[in-house]
Structure formats: C-alpha cells, structure tokens
Amino acid sequence: MQTVFSVGIDALAYGMVLFVISIGLSVTMGLMRVVNLAHGAFAMIGGYIASYATQTLGFGYGVAILVAVVGTIIIAIPVERFLYRRIYGAPELTQVLMTIGITFCVIGIANYVFGPTLKTIPLPEALRGPVDLGFRSIAAHKLFAIACGVAVAGALWFLIEKTSFGVKLRASVDNAAMAASLGVRTKIVYAVSFAVAVGLAAFGGIVGAELLPIEPYYALRYMVTFLVVVSVGGAGSIPGALLACLLLGAIDTSGRYLLPEYGEFFFYLAVIAIVCVFPRGLLGRSK
Amino acid sequence: MKKSVLAALAVLALSSAAFADTIKVGVVGPFSGPFAIQGKNFKAGIDAYMALNGSKVGDNDIEIVYRDLPAADPAQSKALAQELVVKEGVQYLAGFYFTPDAMAVTPLLEQANVPLVVMNAATSAIVTKSPLVVRTSFTTWQTSAPMAKVAKERGVKKVITVVSDYGPGIDSENAFKTTFTAEGGEVVDSVRMPLSTNDFSPIMQRVKDSGADAVFAFLPSGPTTLGFVKAYNENGLAKAGVQFLAPGDLTQESDLPALGQAAEGLLTTFHYAVSHDSAENKKFVEAAHKAIGNPAELSFPSVGAYDGMHVIYKMIEATGGKQDAQKAVDAVKGLAWESPRGPVSIDPETRHMTQNIYLREVAKAADGTYYNKEIATFEKQGDPGLAAAK
Question: What ipTM was predicted for this assembly?
C-alpha cells in the first residue's frame, strides 16, 4: 500500500512537471494554430538564462525565474515579429519546417555560447533536499513543481475563460477577419498570446530542470514528449492537457516501477489507444 | 628566364617535399552533436601528445585528419573509414567513441593494410574482430568488476543492479554480477531501464523495496546521470544507508560541476581520474587544458587518445614510416610505458590495455569544486570480459 502511494506521488509530480512545460505548446497549437516545434527551444533558453542569472550573476532563485521568463519573452519578440508572423495560418508543413529550423539554430547557438556541458539552476535552501511525508521522503522541488502546475492551470483557465482578453483571443482564433472588423486588434492579441506561451515555456524549462536538465539538445530530446501531451490532451484545452499529463505520468511512472524492461512501451501504447478513441485528444474541440 | 627559374624552383620544392613523408592518421569521433564533448576530449588528448612530443617521428611529419561521426552509426563509420583510407591515404585509423562504429571498421583493416587504434569504444569483443586492432581505453568489464570486490570488502551482502538497457549497461551488469557472485555476494534484483528515462523516482522505489544494502548502477555519462544521482539522494536512499556503487562513467569530470553536492561521497571504479597524482599526469593535464580551452570539460576520453597517439608514434618508429600494418601492431605487443593514468602495457594476446583500476570517491576540493579522489588501487588489471565470453 505504501508503495502504491509512493509511486502515486511520483506520478503526480512527474505529470505536473510535464504539464508546466507542455501547456505553452498547447496554447500555441490549439489557440493560435501554429505547430510550434521550437517550443522546447524556448524552454531551453529560459533554463539557460536562469542558470546564467543564478550561477554567474548570483541572483536568487525567484529573481532568476522572473529574469528568465522576461528575458525569453524579449528574445521571442523579434522572432515572432519577423518569423512567426509569416506562418500564422500557413499550411502545417511550412510551420513545421520553419520551427524545426529555428530549433536547430537555437541548438547551435546554445552549443557555441554555453558549451556542450550540463547547466544546473541551483535551488534555494527551502527547495533543496527531501521533505518527509510520513510514509516516504520526496524532493521539495517536486512539491514546488506540483504547486506551480496547479497555479499555472488556474491562472490560464481564468485568463482564457473569464477575462476580456480571453474573449478576444478566442474570437480572433475562431474567425480572425470577423474579430478584426469588430475592432479586436488581432495582431496584438496574437503577439500577446505568443509571449504568454513562450513565457510559460521558459517557466516550465526552469521548474522542470531538475528532471529534464538543461543542455543544448534539450530542444530536440523532449520534443516528442511535449507533442504527445498536447495531442493526447487535445490542443488548446487546459483541462485536457492537465488530464493528459496526469494520466501519462501515472502510466509512465507505474510502468517504470513494475516493468522497467519494457521501456516506454506502455506509455506509447496508451498514447495510441487514446488517440484512436479520441482523435482530437481527450478534451479537444472539434473544428 | 625568370619563368624557367621559378619553374625549376617549383619542381625542386615539390620533389624535396617527397623525401620526408607525411604520414596521415585518420581519427573518427563525435566532434559535433550531443556527444561533441567526448570528441573534443579526443582532440585535446591528441593535441596534448603532439605538443609534448612534437609532430615528427624520425623524418616523417605526422598529420591528423579528423572525420566527424556525431552519433553511433556503423554504416557511416565504415564509409568514413573507407574514404580516409582511399582518398586521404591514411596509414593509421584511430578514435571511435562507440562500439558499433569500431566494429564496422574492423573488416576493412586487413585489405587496407591499416592498423586501428581504438581510443574509447569499450566492449570487450572489438579486439577479437581483427588482429590489427589495438585498444588504449578500457572495457566496461575491466572497470566494473573491481567494484564487486570493493562491495565485498565493505561488507555489502545484497546488491541490486540498475543499468541502462543497452550494450555497455548489460556488460556492466554481467561483469558485476559474475564477480560479486563469485565473491559470495548476492544480487537480489537486476533492473534494466530504457535509455530515455527522465524520472528515476520509481526506480529508486524498486531499489528501496528490494531491501539491498547497495545499488550498483551504470548509465551513459550525460544528462540522465544527473537525474539518477539526484533521485538517489532525494528519495532518501543515501540516508537509509543504501550505498551507491558504479563505474566511473557516472562521475566523469565534465559532469561533476553539474552533479555538485549530490555526487559527494559516491564510490566509483575507473581507469583514470584527472586528479591522478603523478608527474606524467601533471604534464598531460597542463597540455590538455591548453588544448581543450575550458578545463572543466577535460575527462577520460582524452587520456585514451593521448595513449593512442603514443602507440601510433611507436608503430611509426618501428616501421620507419612504411605502411606495414602487421609489423606495426607486432611492434607494440607487450609495449609498456608510464601513462598519465599510471603504468600501462599492451597485452600481447588481446592487444588490449593492462592497467591499474582505481577506486575513487567524489570529494570536495579546497576551492569548492568537486573531483574524483583516488583512494585505492587495483594493480595491473586485464580484461575479464574476454575470458568470460569464452
């Protein structure tokens, strides 16, 4: 019984880390209809900035997160203005080619500037070391990641469903021309949502850095995982992404506990089954 | 008139160049991509050797021709080797980080009349594939087996092995199991985990549930090692007194800054630590630091490359620069010298290196950085892997 609880907590933590990193991609793919394969690259940029801010500049963890999120958004603004704006509404193949190209450029630059070694983001004292839950000990930063996941999910849901910005965003996505004629400045709406998505990527990159360490090939190494979460959850659906992360986290973690020899067999088996039954993802919107 | 003088000079210049031969050495390794740091170490080792010993053997100039092979890819490896031999006219092939890449080249050697000096690839069987293969690195068996003796000495009775599910991981598991069982220990469970594992908490739960006194682990160096070592600490295994045993791939020097405090006290067995205390190593590290640029990136493949160059220089010396692969290989059989890692020799039977294996503990230096501190030596270890395969 204790083991079941123990594995359950691991699954929850892993799922939440996945959620924080992948949710930004769900926003770009589902709401903005851009297949953004460079999502991992932005997460990695966030991680590198945070690592640089803590290790070299000596900032605290909280400040570093802020600096990294803002810094990544600043880097992303010209990229959005000059590259992404050309591919809004373009065929998916064009989007894939453009964003994978950006990914390779970012990998090359990161390798050149920061070198091929692993970069860490030192945690503050409070998040370091294990916390005793009574029946087992768990890393404090995992509890932090769970809290971040819950906070991000809540804030995003509120932003999209309850604010006037959310209304404008949904309107621009459903029918850009009509929204524009009603006075919604769609370009700005798109730019802001892109910035939010990139900021979430950077945030996820930092919070998840303990599980997915920052190195130049980060951007490619975990791309499939992010895409799987979005396609299983249903692009653009926040509850869907949350559900997908928890489900996949549980399957992956218990699979690894019980039958590690099978590798990711059960993970992908579940993905195939879910996508067969729900072609648009668990809670995806039909077009 | 002027023109004809120039022409004569040009002819002279060309023909005089032909007197002293340039001997080319083709080096294949991962110089870009995810494993670029290991290729960088190859190059640093080679550069260090040439900086300390000159780029000439007798009258012959030595030229290194590098070819990039970013990830394990046997077909591409063979194609690169062929190109080096046919187009570049190399007399020696060297390098090779991954076993399948080295294996793919062995069928070419005899016909090409070229010896192969393996500077890293660590599966025992490579040397049996051709009589023209010499290896100056280590084998996973060689570095894993002594750990079983350490475990026994330290009073560990029950061990769980946890390895990445691929060739070297399985080699390592077999090496430890065989030796530890022979020593009278018990391996209670063996877990093989996929290479792409990110979250190791469930594995640590398995370790805990198995009731073992120690965990023996093997993972390829790089990002996953970091997650594994952290998970070991965070899941309370260190506190519960479960010892961590592994071959030195897990605590290679270039990963230590990232592992930091989490790695402190880990026990590993390996053939080389950058911190090795000897005059030879001091000279080597100084030259290699200069060659690699960033000292934190220097780790074990550099010493394999350094000793590989030593062997190649000896081969060129013995053949006088003429291409004769068999004579070159015969000349280094039994060759013994003082390497930066300690006294080494080429076993005449297997053409693999006999060397000391060290037990190391990750310790904190006075300047706050972490390093592998050698605390015990297993002298003159051969490769138990070949014997086990028979």
Answer: 0.71
> What is the tens place of the pLDDT at every residue in A124-182?
888 877 787 777 777 888 889 899 999 999 999 999 889 999 999 888 888 888 888 99
The answer on B336 and B292 residing in a single domain is yes
Cα separation of A202 and A207, whole Å?
A: 9
Residue B8 lies in a domain: no
Please measure the distance between the N-terminal and C-terminal CA atoms of chain A and give it in whole angstroms.
44
Kindly state whether residue B338 falls inside one of the protein's structural domains: yes
Query: Which pLDDT band, with edges at 50, 70 and 90, does B6 fall under?
Result: low
Q: B318: buried, middle or exposed (CB in 10 Å: 19+, 13-18, 0-12)?
A: middle
Same domain for B255 and B110? Answer: no
Report pTM.
0.80
Q: With contact defined as beta carbons under 8 Å apart, do B176 and B140 qualify?
A: no
Identify the domain containing residue B259 by its residue range.
141-270+357-389
Confidence at residue A99, expressed as pLDDT on a 0 to 100 scale: 94
When scoring B42, B234, B259 by the number of chain A Cβ atoms within 10 A, the one with the most, hence best to mutate, is B234
Are residue B77 and residue B202 in the same domain, yes or no? Answer: no
Both B192 and B234 in a single domain?
yes
Nearest to B199 among A6, A10, A116 (CB): A10
Substitution target from B37, B193, B198, B255 for chain A, most A beta carbons within 10 A: B198
Provide the CA B321 distance to its chain's centre, in angstroms: 27
Average pLDDT over residues B350-359: 94
User: Is B9 within the bounds of a domain?
Assistant: no
- Overall domain count for chain B: 2
**Hey, what amino acid is at A174?**
D
Give the integer Cα–Cα distance in Å for A39 and A266: 25
Residues B384 and B265 in one domain: yes
CA angle A175, A181, A185 (to 5 degrees): 80
Query: Do residue B69 and residue B125 come from a single domain?
Result: yes
Contact A120 B226 (CB under 8 A): yes
In a domain, B156, yes or no: yes
**What pLDDT is stored for residue B18 in this prediction?**
43
**Residue A252, token pair as written in the block:** 């992956």
